[in-house]
Amino acid sequence: MNNQELREIIKESVREVLKEERLALYEILTPYATQKERDDIQKRFGSPEKYDEDQFVDMTDWIKE
Considering the entire predicted model, what is its pTM? Predict the structure, then answer.
């Protein structure tokens, strides 16, 4: 195994660990909602499929820059 192959293996391993840790962070930061709370939210705001598309902003480009 040469140095370049070893570097690639290490890079990929670090990427995997960072991805796992980022997902764990998302889970920690996402608030828990009981079924009763979810039902209340559904009753108040309805289903996302019924929302008006014009009220949304596509922020994909904002994140890329």
Answer: 0.51
